[in-house]
Amino acid sequence: MTAAACDPASDDEPAPTPDAGTQDPDPTAGDVAPADRTSCTGLTVPAGTYDWTVEHGGRTRAYRVHVPTGYDATKPTPVVFSFHGFSSNEVEQEQLSQFSTLGDTEGFIAVYPRGLNFPEVYGQGEPDSRGWNGVACCGPAQIANVDDVGFVDALLADLDTRVCTDPRRVFANGFSNGGFFSYRLACERAQRFAAIASVAGMEGMADCNPSQPIPVLHFHGTADETIFYEGGNNIIGGRPYPSAGESVRRFAEHNGCTGPEQQTFQQGNTTCFAATGCTPESATASLCAITGGKHAWPGQPGYNGGTSDLDATLQMWRFFQARPRP
């Protein structure tokens, strides 16, 4: 596996210039709950892995989709988005997260969008610089204020013409910069995504006001040297970001969680706690801390020594599975 997931520092990149696909003045304008669906007709895509594109912001944007074994094109199917880290891509994120493999077992569609790089945004610079506008992080999309949330809106609309999605069971997760962006979707698209999860990425929004409660699950190594567990200001061209604990606490507050923290998992170097007394009760905000853990995906020991004490991919799916959008 070659996932170079997120190195926020980068040298000799082009100076920022106005970008054609910058963020819409009202970033919450697309936060509208889609209609419920009980069945689909006229869709013919079978199980398999596909690389598709959609036009947005004057660009052709790419994304990979894995349609699971046993998929029925007439039945609404859950969808799990997984966003790669800075300097990675959709193929590496598929390898890192293994959501396609799990999707075959559990019956959900896995979606891996591709972020923009410096040549695509500025016409020059390092091509190995793909990322997302997570506000605090990272790279050309963030520096140029690219409308990546609008890209996700366009992707959802395009996906809906190809496969039978369940609008109440669409979820997002990401690694590092992709985790920052998943938090952004929680802030600005709480009616489109039923729940989100982040691995090694913080809630980097200057102003986050979800339109409704949205469950959050966060995984983070306490010895992460790229995105610091206790927060920091080390991202070149980025902004200061909060700690993992503060990121989760903000959503506990958004979700009206007034009960005590409850330990939900403990094995080896990994311990998870969840806020309780939320409204609704399923709108928990949970943090899994990996003591001594690096910038890694739990359950993938081959990349940066990810812990074997917890499988983040499986835990995310269990979390999502129990939390369809109300």
UniProtKB/TrEMBL annotation:
Cellular location(s)? Secreted
Q: Which UniProt keywords apply?
A: Carbohydrate metabolism, Hydrolase, Polysaccharide degradation, Secreted, Signal, Xylan degradation
Which Gene3D superfamilies does this UniProt record tie to the protein? alpha/beta hydrolase
The molecular function terms of the Gene Ontology recorded here are: feruloyl esterase activity
One GO cellular component assignment for this chain's record is: extracellular region
State one Pfam family annotation.
Esterase
The family database entries (InterPro entries) matched by this protein are listed as: AB_hydrolase_fold (IPR029058), Esterase-like (IPR000801), FaeB/C/D (IPR043595)
Single biological process term from Gene Ontology? xylan catabolic process
Q: Where is this region: Disordered?
A: 1-40
Q: What is this protein called?
A: Poly(3-hydroxybutyrate) depolymerase
Source species: Corallococcus terminator
